[in-house]
Please model this.
Amino acid sequence: MDVQRYLLVLDMDLLALDEQLDLEPINYLVAQQERHPCEVVVLSLVSTSQARLPAMEMLLGAQIGKFPIAPRPDHDTSAAAEHRMNLAVQHLTTIGCQASGLISDENLVRAVTSETRAHEYDEVILATGGQGGSGLVQAAHLDPIHQLRRRLRKRLIVFPLGPAAAHPAS
Model:
């Protein structure tokens, strides 16, 4: 029986993300595992945005004379990405998938592009919190989802499902 290969891209904890999405990513992988044995590679993205303050917060803070507090300088985003990856691998193994993981400090598009050039995947499952981009970027189809969709086409599965995402086939 053929083993289906999936790349699961995360930038936050899988169980927390799953709770926000009513277990859709996990249920999707469970359904796939029931049809064919699956191998999942978890690509955990190091979130460098945690180390920077959003520009809007800085602007609002400047207007009222109070600046927001930056994240602790000792917060290790690489360790957080590794912990997230390990938990996801453990959870996927529990549901019956073969699972392994890797960490990338590249942006979403570069990380996925690098990995899909190096290895063949049947599907790339994007389950991240920060996929969108501004309305103008999305309208111009320059956001990460559209960039990946042009390259991966129907192999890209996006949670949560939005206008740029195709619903996974059941």
User: Anything to note?
Assistant: Strands lie at 4-10, 38-45, 98-104, 123-127, 156-159. The mean pLDDT is 76. The CA atoms of residues 40 and 149 lie 20 Å apart. The chain has seven helices and five strands.
